[in-house]
Amino acid sequence: MSSCSAKSGPAPQSESGQSAASSCCSSNTETLQTSELEAADTIQFSWSITGMDCPSCAAKIENAVNALDGIHQARVTFATERLLVVAEDKSGNDSAVVNVVESLGFSIHNNRKSEAASEGFLKKYWRILALAAVMLIAALAQVISPIGSNVLFYLATLWGLFPIASKAFKLGKSGTPFSIETLMSIAAIGAMFLGETIEAAMVLLLFLIGEHMEAFAAGRARQGVQKLMALTPDTALLIDSDGNKKEVAAHTLNPGDIIDVLPGSRLPVDGELLTAGVSFDESALTGESVPVEHDEGNSVMAGSLSVDRVARIKVISKPGESAVDRIIRLIEEAEERKAPVERFIDAFSHWYTPLMMVLAGFVAIVPPLALGQSWEEWIYKALTLLLIACPCALVISTPAAVTSALARASRNGALVKGGAALELMGSVTTVAFDKTGTLTEGKPEVAHVEAFSIEQDTVLQLAAAVESGSTHPLAKAIVAYAQSHQLAIPAAEHVEAKAGLGVQGLVDGQSVSIGSPRHLQHAIDQIDSARKKLELLEDQGNTIAVVTVEDELIGFIALSDTPRTDAKAAIIALKSMGISSVMLTGDNRRAAAAIAGQLGMEYRAELLPGDKSSEIEKLRAFGKVIMIGDGINDAPALKAADIGIAMGSGADIALETADCALTHNRIEELPELIDLSKSAMSIIRQNIFLAVGSKAFFLVTTLLGMTGLWVAVLADTGATALVTANALRLLAHKKKR
């Protein structure tokens, strides 16, 4: 337990010692990544919060906690129900946070499996039952004693009003004066003064029932995230150095540890498979219903379920950095990267409620003063307007849809960094693809070695020497080919790589360079037959690595790569959606034309990293552009595009720069993701229309005297439930085949 544990209430989970987020979800909006975290006198805590019905609840908690002394920053993530706090490292701060959250009527605990949530629910439900019982007795007493019945309705109203008014007062003190609790309290008190005790009690009863309906709907909206959080087991079977097994906490595992995963059990961490031919059910992560067979050496994600046998796994992820952890962290961060429509709704809701309160004031005062109308009638209408002013349905309309869509996308193998990227995807007109590792398998093989005045083996040895330290697919292919021919690879010194150009180093005191034909054109021109041979190899669809020693051409290494099996289907699917595809590659024109011809798409070849960015800018003149790639040289283009998508196995810099990552390296997920974006935006528009339309309708009916207090509450609760249920449809969004 941390030394900063709460002295009263549940202990927080200190996160000050956690590793940084993995590159899959690193961003400028890293969770509470502030200068305060780096200070020696601050510490970060996290708690689980239950009882939040909509994002406005999260804002109320944030305002209250941020108002406390010693708190540097507080943020509540509605999707994962977590409170993250950066506070001064001194005793009492954590206790103050717990106390203020509980005073607002929410449950706070450090264990998601805690019974706190259940107890809070039962307490609220008991109050509803008691209120309903008193109202029923009061209604029955109407026949015997109208005065006694009226007294009982007053008591019922006071019984239901007390916790709501208390919460409204505390929220007002903490910086949220225009809350639904404030509106409800004013309306109920006003109704009592008007003698409308039955309606006042009914309003409070419907409000309390509505809270539970909203909580249920919000829980369903979070269901996708909660299922992800429950995927990884808390314990693991660790194999020690003597081969003995012992059960340990999963969070204590470190890279290099060996564990066993029993049939029917899930991986607690990402790992490398040490057992050959094990099938894993990855449906919870990818949506694929058919188990996938993995060979020895394959990487397997946390949350995957071993289907048929014991799997021995070597841990490859650090604590808190498994695939599931990255997805959850990404969803939390995504709340910071709100879609433009979501930011507009937030801004609108901030002034909407105060404006409605002013309007209600005019309705209560102007008709009686200016037109001599009944004060009682227009005050009653004004109180009804206050209830119509509740923005719950409008506030939750967008985030519920965004959260559901992000959860669905993560299950399909796509990590989207926020609603802003999700919204843009539905309006793209062009998708630009890198070639190697994106459209192709990224596993090139040496097809031919052409030597000039030197042995082929010598060309291979020199090339492998300077490429042996590189992780580029072409370099790895050259080294693997030399090793397969059992060639001795000499040591290279002062090796220097230049993205998009090539690599050079010293081997036995001689300068050896490997690069593209364009980069080493001067060396090719030295030999008359070299140009013709180069064109012949390129016409066959090969990528050519030119090898020189002291700037003199010694040979060509031709490498071939095959298109991904799903690439052509993805291009066809995009075309059917009216989206054009173009390949951007640094490869030669002939090799690019061969791959593009097989896939049926346009191409731009022989591009340097800067050239790719320029091409993206040209494409953006005609509409929104997605760039998808996996290499270091793709990072500038990913940043230049409206939306950058990185392949999950790509370079860290590409993953950090991108707005989205395809964790399973399947570009067939891209059309599905765009379709999901369009569905999400359609549902958001439907929700906004429903929320605003219902408000407008009941505004008119109230002013006409057709509806009253309890109908206004019922309508707001119903609209909130409807927009949430509509958003939940995205969790079941079907993949098109």
Characterise this structure.
- The protein is an alpha+beta fold and 737 residues long.
- It is built from 26 helices and 27 strands.
- The protein has five domains: 13-118, Alpha-Beta Plaits; 121-223 and 336-402 and 681-732, no CATH class; 235-321, Calcium-transporting ATPase, cytoplasmic transduction domain A (Distorted Sandwich), CATH 2.70.150; 419-440 and 565-658, 3-Layer(aba) Sandwich (Rossmann fold), CATH 3.40.50; 445-560, Calcium-transporting ATPase, cytoplasmic domain N (3-Layer(aba) Sandwich).
- 49% of the residues lie in helices and 18% in strands.
- Helix 4 runs antiparallel to helix 7, helix 6 (180-193) packs antiparallel against helix 7 (197-221) and helix 14 (419-425) packs across helix 25.
- The relative contact order is 0.09.
Give the structure's gist in a few sentences.
With 737 residues, the protein is of the alpha+beta class. It has 26 helices and 27 strands.
List the main descriptive attributes of the protein structure presented here.
737 residues, Alpha-Beta Plaits, Calcium-transporting ATPase, cytoplasmic transduction domain A, 5 domains, 7-stranded mixed sheet, 26 helices, 27 strands, elongated
Characterize the overall form: elongated
Largest sheet: 7 strands, mixed
Helix content: 40-55%
Question: Strand order, biggest sheet?
Answer: 15-27-26-25-16-23-24
**Annotation, overall tally of beta strands:** 27
Tell me the strand percentage band: 15-25%
Which ranges are low-confidence, i.e. pLDDT below 50, for 5 or more consecutive residues?
1-40, 111-121
Distance between the termini: 50 Å
Oligomer: single chain
Number of domains: 5
The whole-angstrom Rg is 32 Å
Average pLDDT metric: 77
Work out the helix count: 26
